[in-house]
Specification:
CATH architecture of the largest domain: 3-Layer(aba) Sandwich
Low-confidence stretches: none
Number of helices: 11
Radius of gyration: 19 Å
Order of helices and strands: EHEHHEEHEHEEHEHHHHH
Bound molecules: 1,4-dihydronicotinamide adenine dinucleotide
Family: Belongs to the 3-hydroxyacyl-CoA dehydrogenase family.
Distance between the termini: 45 Å
Oligomer: single chain
Pathway: Lipid metabolism; butanoate metabolism
InterPro entries: 3-OHacyl-CoA_DH (IPR022694), 3-OHacyl-CoA_DH_NAD-bd (IPR006176), 3HC_DH_C (IPR006108), 6-PGluconate_DH-like_C_sf (IPR008927), 6PGD_dom2 (IPR013328), NAD(P)-bd_dom_sf (IPR036291)
Number of domains: 2
CATH class of the largest domain: Alpha Beta
Strand content: 5-15%
Mean pLDDT: 96
Keywords: Oxidoreductase
EC number: 1.1.1.157
Number of strands: 8
């Protein structure tokens, strides 16, 4: 089996930076790439802060932290992928933009390289079709926050080879994660269930069933969820939530998946949740 040693993560946002951290912590070299250098720099800042917290809490030594940071390099040039064994893509949830990226990666990356997508809802079979190596394209769906959450949903496209699947399963275990295989359906398992619940919570707010805090408290105290659905939506990003609902609605064709108009309105206003400072809650005034 190929020994994956050098990886490139594309997208230095919340997910990409977390993925770069766990890859480097598992001993591999990682290039964190973003079209906007300010984002990859911000991503590296988040990684550093996470590691400082780990050192303070004695979960890691200073030497371990330094070694992890030394394995991460930043890039804004896709050509830096010409020597990697694997790419994990974590850019915006948009098929058009992802398709252009995968076409370029297919030309740049070595023949043996695996191209994985962290998409939270889009079809892996379709993403793979933009490359000449569909057998080496796979879904690797991490959960947010990546350094904390154990699960990785692993999704085979129709043409993904068993060898690619085994390499990714092995990589997930090296990162101390638990890989679970699911089939290539819109939203897979996690987001088909989670986003339908979040969308229903937004409908509750929209229809005036209860105030936002009450909706979240009902789910926390009543269902033992660690976070309420509206706070969780802010954490995921409302643009990402809307994109996933559109994929579920279009892909499964059932009106029960129609995005709530209020979700659409917030995204149109630029209220994207925690990352923009405002979503269902206001993060400029209060820490959620
Ligand atoms: P984000 O908005 O925090 O970050 C996206 C990053 O991609 C930005 O820094 C942007 O500059 C960069 N980017 C956009 N186009 C690019 C390109 N062509 N080349 C290089 N960089 C590019 O988004 P987030 O939340 O990190 O999501 C990324 C992906 O991960 C999406 O596919 C999303 O569905 C998926 N995901 C998100 C989760 C969440 O909780 N937010 C959970 C699991 C998966």
């Amino acid at each position: 089996m190929m020994d994956i040693q050098r990886l490139m993560i594309i997208g230095g946002g919340q997910m990409g930076s977390g993925i770069a951290q766990v890859v480097a912590a598992a001993g591999m070299n990682v290039i964190l790439n973003d079209i906007d250098p300010a984002y990859s720099l911000k991503g590296l800042g988040t990684i550093r802060n996470n590691l400082i917290r780990d050192v303070e809490k004695k979960r890691k030594s200073q030497a371990e932290m330094d070694a992890i940071l030394a394995r991460i390099s930043l890039s804004s040039d896709l050509e830096d992928g010409r020597n990697v064994d694997m790419v994990i893509e974590a850019i915006v949830e948009n098929m058009q933009i992802k398709s252009e990226l995968f076409k370029k990666l297919d030309l740049i990356c070595p023949q043996h390289a695996i191209l994985a997508s962290n998409t939270s809802s889009l079809a892996i079979t379709e993403i793979a079709s933009f490359t000449k190596r569909p057998d080496q394209v796979i879904g690797m769906h991490f959960m947010n926050p990546v350094p904390v959450m154990k699960l990785i949903e692993v999704i085979r496209g129709l043409r993904t080879s068993h060898e690619t699947y085994l390499l990714v399963e092995n990589l997930a275990k090296r990162m101390d994660k638990v890989p679970i295989e699911v089939n290539d359906f819109p939203g897979f398992v996690s987001n088909r269930i989670l986003l339908t619940m979040i969308n229903e919570a937004v409908f509750c707010l929209y229809e005036g069933v209860a105030a936002r805090e009450s909706i979240d408290e009902v789910m926390k105290l009543g269902m033992n969820h660690p976070m309420g659905p509206l706070a969780l939506a802010d954490f995921i990003g409302l643009d990402t939530c809307l994109a996933i609902m559109e994929v579920l609605h279009e892909g499964l064709g059932d009106s029960k998946y129609r995005p709530c108009p209020l979700l659409r309105k917030y995204v149109a206003a630029g209220w994207l949740g925690k990352k923009s400072g405002r979503g269902f809650y206001d993060y400029k005034k209060r820490e959620q």
